[in-house]
Design a protein that fits this description.
The chain has ten helices and 21 strands. It is an alpha+beta fold. Helix 2 runs parallel beside helix 4 and helix 6 packs across helix 7. It comes from Sandaracinobacteroides saxicola. This is Molybdopterin-binding protein.
């Protein structure tokens, strides 16, 4: 690619390097210089243009090619414009992204920006943008970037039901609020909520309720007291009915006291106290993955610590520091 400044008549066949104004009309950069445009610009001393080399790929074609390599399941690429292609979700679900840096490390001329991994998105939401910085890139550079690209994807919400178990003693108004908040939380993830009558907060009663729970995508337990140990009521009840414990506690605040277990193929979550609030908390980090059909391991939860300070992450930026 060659940048050059020349008289308008000699610029024919090139692309405008910068926007210009002719007869009160703005002509965008990258516009091809045709004989008509050159004649209209004849009064100008010169034009700065770009001429592509034979091995160059124009910005729109390059952006579209890289988008093809990055568009995974349940995503769609918009048409290229000015060297940019946006990727959109085709369904509501959880955005999945890996190895974004691998593309950006190939060359500064090609860029990929995405939403954070595991972010819930709505249908048609933009999840990523590919931008070619110059007017063209070398074909070899584009080939290297497409080779480095790992397709982005979306894990759509699977639907189904979540069954909520309350333990007591707990005021009726707190139980009602927990039911309402939890119902809204799972509805946002494409699920419906079922629940039975409250039961005493003891291992036997909870074990019986777990064993009798209707078939569902997952089971949620809103305990009368917080879980403090693997021997506490909720973890012990999961084990008592033949379940397994995946994690007791998580590196997220609010949400530290979450319990995750499994009963057969059904995940069981002991809710942290903050789950009674609609504010984002550690429960959401786990629940969203499960609602999208993703397994959640102890290692997955351990990795949630970076970014797990949720209240502070949502706070306004301290611009006064500048």
């Amino acid at each position: 690619m060659i940048f050059t400044t020349c008289p308008p008549a000699e610029a024919i066949g090139g692309l405008l390097a910068h926007a210009i104004t002719l007869n009160g009309r703005r002509i965008a950069k990258a516009t091809p210089v045709t004989p008509i445009l050159a004649a209209a610009a004849a009064h100008l001393p010169s034009l700065t243009i770009v001429r592509l080399d034979p091995h160059d790929v124009a910005e729109d074609a390059a952006a579209a090619a890289l988008a093809d390599a990055l568009t995974g399941p349940d995503l769609r690429a918009a048409p290229p414009l000015h060297g940019r292609v946006n990727l959109h979700a085709t369904r509501a679900g959880l955005f999945l992204a890996t190895d974004v840096t691998a593309v950006n490390a190939v060359d500064e001329s090609l860029t990929l920006a995405t939403l954070p991994p595991f972010m819930p998105v709505a249908a048609d939401q933009v999840v990523a943008t590919i931008k070619i910085i110059p007017f063209a890139v070398a074909a070899a550079t584009l080939a290297a970037a497409t080779l480095a690209a790992t397709p982005l994807a979306l894990a759509p919400w699977r639907g189904g039901t979540a069954h909520l178990i309350h333990t007591t003693p707990m005021p009726a108004k707190v139980i009602a609020k927990t039911s309402a908040v939890t119902g809204a939380r799972v509805a946002a993830l494409g699920m419906t909520l079922t629940q039975g009558p409250p039961i005493p907060h003891d291992g036997v009663s909870l074990a019986d309720a777990l064993a009798a729970a209707p078939p569902s995508a997952l089971i949620l337990v809103a305990g009368a007291t917080a879980t403090a140990d693997r021997a506490d009521v909720i973890p012990a009840a999961i084990l008592a009915v033949g379940g397994t414990l995946i994690r007791v506690g998580m590196p997220a605040d609010p949400g530290n006291l979450l319990v995750l277990g499994q009963l057969g193929s059904t995940p069981v979550i002991g809710l942290p106290g903050c789950a009674r609030s609609p504010k984002r908390n550690g429960l959401d980090l786990v629940l969203e993955r499960l609602a999208a059909g993703l397994a959640v391991t102890s290692a997955d939860i351990a990795a949630m610590g970076a970014g797990g300070l949720l209240d502070e992450a949502a706070a306004a930026l301290p611009w006064g520091w500048r």
